[in-house]
Amino acid sequence: MKAPAAILLFCLTLLALTFSFNAAASTQDSVKEWKFRVLLDGKDIGHHHFTLTDEGMERRIESEANFDARIFMLFRFQYQHSTAELWRGDCLVQINSETNTNGKTVSMQGYQDDDAFVVATDQEEQRLPECVKSFAYWNAQILKEARLINQQTGRYQEIDIAPLASESLMIRGENVSAQRYRLTGEKIDLNIWYSDTGEWLQLESKVKGGRTIRYQLT
Fold first, then answer.
1. Which of 5, 88, 155, 218 has minimal Cβ neighbours within 10 Å of its Cβ?
2. pTM of the full predicted structure?
3. What are the sequence ranges of the domains in the chain?
């Protein structure tokens, strides 16, 4: 797999959304925002921003990503993605996303329909179990799941999550105790860090050629 394809694959799964992070900025009691720098081998290639609106029994989450990277000075990788999700408890009840990768745009939609969650893309429509989750790293409950919805492709992907060593991370200038997990699946290999209280702290992935992509809070 070439480096651009590996980075794109990382982006497909990396439509992660955060919730209840103590260091997150808050505009008001019911609305929170998180802003991440996206780094490739330490070089800034863009951002991924998240906004959570708490509406009591429901949570609305919007994300927007924009990457622009040069690969070995030969290939320019451009990526824009936006997602809007509605959650009720720990179940996804609605999702809409649009992604533009190097000029090619794809979209997907999902919604609750009686006892099933329906996902529709340009290629197909599928009915999934009633309560499903996306690759929502903000919700530590995904650590208990065997399958997650890819927010770009709509695929209901099988995954495996294994706990690794506890570590200390530097988060916004402070050392924070973190539990590291490894999430793997078909063409997926990510490392995720959570605080002792289950807050998502960091995500990192190796791509083709040994390069590293990392999300860093700003």
1. 218
2. 0.81
3. 3-217
